[in-house]
Amino acid sequence: MPRDTILIIPAHNEEANLGSVLDEVRAVGYKGDVVVINDFSTDRTALVARRKGAEVVNLPCNLGYGGAVQAGFKYAVERGYRFAAVMDADGQHAPESLAALLQPVVEGRADIAVGSRYLGRAEYRVGLARTMGMRFFSNLVSWITGQRITDPTSGYQAMNAEVMRFFSQDNYPADYPDADTIILVKLAGFRLIEVPVVMRGRLSGVSMHSGLKPLYYVVKMMLSIMIVLLRQRSRMRAVRPGPDIEGGF
């Protein structure tokens, strides 16, 4: 694994989980750098990260999950990292899968790798409503991109510098970057691969998908996908040759 690899961990009030996650990351043999994007936590998330040897970027306000991840991309791009992985701070993304996730990107076989619990293993119970939502977005994303995508809601990802630069601009949502970003990178011409990974339940605390948030997620994601497609259509029109004024169409 190259030394020019960085692991980006967005974290908001994850004091109870982050230490165990960072210990496990090192225990599985990861040798690259780690940066924790502290998304305006009100607990000791930043202190735990520093004590475990991670770099910490403290955000001045709560940007949300997507905003924190994008801050991590900006950090990595500014420092010239060639490869990055994104892992949640709550323990859901098993560090044992990190090497396999990075491998196709480091070897140049893909620009971005997305961890799939459906190709790998989910060590927790997924509710019926969420399962149906995942299947819906899986079919929708597969149809739009022309590539079979089994887990479009996975945030466990690895990518090269080109994708990081792409996401560090205005191509990343602030809250739930999932199916819409997969469509975005595919339409932009990046090579995407799914990799079997292990996903688990949170070590402790409440999931960001609890309560009525899944309903909000579905509505928001549909709107976000529509915006991605409309923007792509506008770009295609912008590069398409215009009509011949003298000779007509």
Top keywords for this entry?
249 residues, alpha/beta, seven-stranded mixed sheet, globular
What topology, given as strand order, has the largest sheet?
3-2-1-4-6-5-7
Order of helices and strands: EHEHEHEHEHEHHEH
The end-to-end distance, rounded to whole angstroms, is 55 Å
- Nearest-integer average pLDDT: 89
Low-confidence stretches: 243-249
Output the radius of gyration.
Answer: 19 Å
Give a count of the beta strands, DSSP E runs of length 2 or more: 7
Q: Sheet with the most strands?
A: 7 strands, mixed
What is the beta-strand fraction?
A: 15-25%
Helix tally equals 8
Sheet/helix structural class: alpha/beta
Q: Which term fits the overall shape?
A: globular
- Which percent bin holds the helix content? 40-55%
Secondary-structure topology with pairs:
Blueprint: E1 5-11, H1 15-27, E2 33-38, H2 45-51, E3 55-58, H3 64-78, E4 83-86, H4 98-106, E5 112-123, H5 128-145, E6 157-160, H6 161-167, H7 179-187, E7 192-200, H8 213-239
Parallel strand pairs: 1-2, 1-4, 2-3, 5-7
Antiparallel strand pairs: 4-6, 5-6
Helix pairs in contact: 1-2, 3-6, 5-7, 7-8
